[in-house]
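Hi C.,

You asked whether I'd gotten around to modeling the 160-residue construct. I have! Everything is below, sequence then structure, no commentary in between.
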Amino acid sequence: MKQLFPPLLLCATALLGGGCGSVEDGYQWVISSAGMDAESAMRADAQKTIDGLVSAYQDRSAMAFMSWVSDDYPGAPALLDSAIRRSFSHFFYIEINCTISSVVPSAGDGTLSVNLQYQRKLGDKDTGIINSDWGSTNVLLRKEGDVYKLLQQHSPVLFR
């Protein structure tokens, strides 16, 4: 009969940040959250937040958008709320497509640094022209309750 203690110790070590490895028999222990490994779970959490922000922005719903923004957003969330409302009134067409390139957790403060590739189309009411741009940007998300919220946007700013 095999001992159960070494694999349990291995998993406990992994949960405490010691990593995960293979047991001699070839069994591998993986940290999981709702059936996902830790990296996939972080990526899914980030995707949920980005999807919520993009959907609310495209739908021109300031209230829904701001529900995805942290109360600690730099310069006060009210300034972002005012900026996006101006955008909603200035653009007749808004389309944003994002792809997450990477998600990097911080060292213990509950934040995720998310690198995004985006393509954005904005229809200007004054000119009637739909302008397109694309690029890469970073956003910082922080866990608040059971969801991640937008804490910071880096230049180029995706939501303006």
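If it helps when you're writing up: Confidence is low (pLDDT under 50) at residues 1-33.

Thanks,
B.
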